[in-house]
Amino acid sequence: MASWTDEVQGRLGFGCMRLPGGGGEGGYGEMRRMVDTFLGAGFNYFDTARPYHGGKSETALRECLVKRHPRESFFLTDKLTHGTFRDPQSLREVFQSELEACGVGYFDMLLAHAVNAAHYDLYTRCGVFDVVPEFLADGRARHFGISFHDSPDVLERILGEHPEIEAVQIQFNYADFANGAVQSLGCYEVCERHGVPCLVMEPVKGGSLVNLPAAAQAVIDALPNPEGLSNAGLALRFAASYPNNKVVLSGMSDLSQMEDNIRSMADPAPLPQEFIDGLMKVHDVFRELGMVECTACHYCTDGCPRQIMIPEMLGALNTKRVFGGWNPGWYYSNSLVGNGHGRAGDCIKCGKCERECPQKLPIRELLEAVSEEFD
Ligand code: SF4
Ligand code: SF4
After folding, report:
1. CA of 283 to the centre of ligand 2 (A)
2. Whose CA is nearest to atom 2 of ligand 1?
3. 189 shares its domain with 48
4. 81, 90, 120, 200 - which has most CB atoms within 10 Å?
5. Ligand 1 proximity of 232 Cβ (cutoff 6 Å)
6. From ligand 2's centre to the CA of 249, what distance in Å?
7. Does residue 12 sit in the same domain as residue 37?
8. Could you tell me if 215 and 346 lie in one domain?
9. How many distinct structural domains can be found in the chain?
10. Quick one: which ligand is closest to 299's CA?
11. Share of the chain above pLDDT 90, in %
């Protein structure tokens, strides 16, 4: 079977989750300029999902990309998102409605969205792994993969059980190398071992690595930067320095961001190791800013009577407090609570988790902080 990577041009992907003008018609002029600039620069990968921009992303792509460019000139990925279907039949209906919203007869790539251990079970119960082969067989989807938010051992299990998965979208950036709840490198290595190419999401950590805290910026400024890459460009090139990261998605929301991204990724040569080592020192700064040093070992979660997703919540707290990220609240509400998993505020303070934590973290206290931020 031909690999989807042969159909992708360049290694920069246009992530359509933060579109100009809020994704509405008011932003279509800028969006059209961005689409044309992106294709004109030799890239062709577009990524969308039903929930992006309150459901406006797919129609914005239809108006600005699909109606204006030949179908074979772009590679389009859409996703099956938990909560939009409940069984095989509603899944079929949602998938067809996504094709119609985008105005296409097929998706080049279809991803099961935001897979973690809980969603994996949900998707399995709803029939995702049984129904998607129908779409692949009738040509309405050409390739299938997952976007993933959990630990390497969960990914190992999923790829072992589903060798048909052709791509895994992982969160990968130099800040999350130090974020135990994300474990960028661990997930990357699982994919590499299984021979599954990666798509990178959050290379700039939702924009958090563009405007860095001053102390972190000072570390970056001390590194040699002969290409004069911007902070965003450095973050993209960091992700692209790992060869199994075939496409690095960037959620570009105006033309100037796109031009900077294109400049950085026109020739995505790996960053020198010295530079990569220097970026890792930024971790020390993040720690000083109060990053919670959870390693996502999950030892704490088994005995929790409220099934609270402790490490993932601590990761979201880091994203919010250290990086000022744009999406941890959405991630918290949509991926970390529900389906039997309690909110941070549901903690009954039994202390079982703290007895298991090898890092001796004050989990109860930290969950109070999580609750203050997100509940
Ligand atoms: S203290 Fe809270 S988070 Fe920890 S095990 Fe008990 S209920 Fe769960
Ligand atoms: S046991 Fe501690 S370090 Fe491990 S996941 Fe839980 S909070 Fe994080």
Report:
1. 19
2. 347
3. yes
4. 200
5. no
6. 29
7. yes
8. no
9. 2
10. 2
11. 66
**Residue 298 beta carbon below 6 angstroms from any ligand 2 atom:** yes
pLDDT at 295 over 60: yes
Asked whether residue 200 is assigned to any structural domain, the reply reads: yes
Domain that holds residue 309: 290-374
Which atom from ligand 2 is nearest to the alpha carbon of 357? 1
Q: Is 366 in the pocket of ligand 1 (CB under 6 A)?
A: no
Contact 47, 61 (CB under 8 A): no
Return the ligand number nearest the Cα of 365. Answer: 1
Q: Are residues 53 and 97 in the same domain?
A: yes
**Which residue's CA lies nearest to atom 6 of ligand 1?**
350
- The pLDDT tens digits for 132-168 are 999 999 999 999 999 998 889 999 999 999 999 999 9
Nearest CA to ligand 1 atom 3: 347
What is the DSSP annotation of 302-338?
TT-TT---HHHHHHHHHHHHTT--SSHHHHIIIIISB
- Other C-beta atoms lying within 10 Å of the C-beta of residue 272: 13
- Which residues on neighbouring strands pair with residue 198, listed in sequence order? 168, 245
Q: Residue 48: CB partners within 8 Å, gap ≥ 6?
A: 16, 17, 57, 58, 61, 76, 77, 78, 79, 102
Task: Say yes or no: CB of residue 41 within 6 Å of ligand 2.
Answer: no
- What is d(CA 245, CA 242) in angstroms, rounded to the nearest whole number? 6
Q: Check: CB of residue 255 under 8 Å from CB of residue 33.
A: yes
Q: Which two tokens stand for residue 6?
A: 């042969």
In this model, does residue 37 exceed pLDDT 70? yes
Structural domain contains residue 265? yes
Dump pLDDT digits (tens) for 42-57. Answer: 999 999 999 887 689 9
Specify if 89 maps to a domain. yes
Cβ burial, residue 104 (10 Å; 0-12/13-18/19+): buried
Measured from the Cα of 366, ligand 2's closest atom is: 7
For ligand 2, the distance from its centroid to the CA atom of residue 314, given in whole angstroms, is 9
